TrEMBL record:
Pfam families: Glyco_hydro_88. One of its GO terms (molecular function) is hydrolase activity. It comes from Thermophagus xiamenensis. This is Unsaturated rhamnogalacturonyl hydrolase. It comes from the Bacteria. SUPFAM superfamilies: Six-hairpin glycosidases.
Length: 402
């Protein structure tokens, strides 16, 4: 074979390699199969469950809680013990026999740190070890003294005084609602509804139908509007957290609870709002929801996966009607086409994830459009991996119900 032939052969093989590496899984695959594939891929990337979220050492974090929720849901669906073992390994790494939790400090009053309590309750139901119960009680005790706004809304963190963020509703409310059900504290259902309705009161924008990321009751933050206290923009993932919180707390709030209809009202409001800004071509959502045409904005996978989960679950549970189903299906297919890629080692990845975003802090985050599009974008961030697994499970359920 001459040199020219070798060059042509090498070029062909390289093209074949990269086309395989970046190809998407076929849309004919069952959603359940893709949920399993994504979970197994992430376990391969993170052999120890504490390694999730690119960690170099163990940390008690909301991202781990999110992923453990997804793995437990997959365990309940498939009965595959490897998912339960993976979840238990994280719990046993973090929770000491005394009930103390590694890296957790109650006095920080960080609502993010409460979020993993939900998976811990569900694990305790499967594996009733005393240390889990002690840790669950510890997390519950934080919320008994957690700082609040004048109307009783939980501050996002002690270091972010007087502020409610959409993110915080996912971090605290599902845990409290589940705790209320499992440990006979029905007053927590009232608490959860109250938190949801405070956000509905302060964060909702009637013109767009969307919810602002943050609200500062004191109006002291530079990002806060001096009149309304609201942050300037509608960040996709923030609204995704809120949407997931709504459908998740309804799993635990009793059917006859007086506040349940209020939550259902907000579910419908969120569903109608996000559909207005779903990208017509792809079925996905932008990093800054209402500014899809603005230069620098991009289709973002974690928000898209969260909204897909929210829509399918709300349809499956009967919270919204089937008129939303076409949008849910389009979103799911859009994720597969635009964000899910096969890798050369046989795993799959989810791409285009905003790594992090917030308000205030040091360095200061001003909530501007320029800020939101400046945060790093990466693959396989748990804030997209977990919601994709859960969205696929809900898509599987929807297709079986049709």
């Amino acid at each position: 074979m001459n040199r020219s032939s070798l060059v042509l052969l090498f070029s062909f093989l390289m093209i074949l390699f990269f086309s395989c590496r970046h190809s998407q899984p076929g849309s004919e695959q069952r959603p359940l199969d893709l949920a399993i594939k994504m979970a197994d891929s992430d376990m391969k990337r993170n052999p120890e469950s504490w390694m999730i979220d690119f960690r170099q050492k163990p940390k008690w974090e909301y991202t781990h809680g999110l992923m453990m929720n997804a793995y437990l849901a997959l365990y309940q669906k498939t009965g595959q013990e490897r998912y339960l073992h993976y979840v238990k390994a994280y719990a046993d790494t973090m929770v000491q026999d005394s009930g103390e939790i590694l890296t957790y400090n109650l006095s920080d009053y960080n609502i993010d740190r409460v979020s993993p309590g939900r998976f811990l309750i569900n694990l305790y139901k499967l594996k009733p070890e005393e240390k889990y119960l002690k840790a669950i009680r510890l997390l519950r005790s934080q919320m008994e003294t957690h700082p609040r706004t004048s109307e009783g809304g939980f501050w996002h963190k002690k270091r972010y005084p007087h502020q409610m963020w959409l993110d915080g509703l996912y971090m605290g409310s599902p845990f409290l609602a589940l705790y209320g059900r499992e440990f006979n504290e029905p007053e927590l259902f009232d608490e959860v509804v109250h938190q949801i309705m405070l956000v509905n009161k302060h964060h909702y924008d009637i013109e767009t139908g969307l919810f602002y990321h943050g609200w500062d009751e004191s109006r002291q933050q530079k990002w806060a509007d001096p009149v309304t206290g609201l942050s300037p923009h509608f960040w996709g993932r923030a609204m995704g957290w809120y949407a997931m919180a709504l459908v998740d707390v309804l799993d635990f709030i009793p059917e006859d609870h007086k506040g349940r209809d209020s939550v259902l009202f907000v579910v419908d409001r969120v569903a109608r709002g996000i559909l207005k800004y779903q990208d017509h071509g792809t079925g996905l959502w932008y990093q800054v929801l209402d500014l899809g045409d603005r230069q620098g904005n991009y289709l973002e996978s974690s928000a898209s996966a969260m909204f897909t989960y929210f829509l399918f679950k709300a349809i499956n549970k009967g919270y919204i009607d089937n008129s939303f189903s076409a949008s849910a299906e389009k979103a799911y297919k859009g994720i597969l086409k635009n964000f899910i890629q096969k890798e050369s080692d046989g795993t799959i990845s989810i791409t285009n994830v905003c790594s992090v975003a917030g308000l205030g802090g040091d360095p200061y985050r001003d909530g501007s459009f320029e800020y939101y599009i400046s945060e790093p974008i990466r693959n396989n961030d748990p804030k997209a991996v977990g919601p994709f697994i859960m969205a696929a499970l809900e898509a599987e359920k929807y297709r079986k119900m049709k």
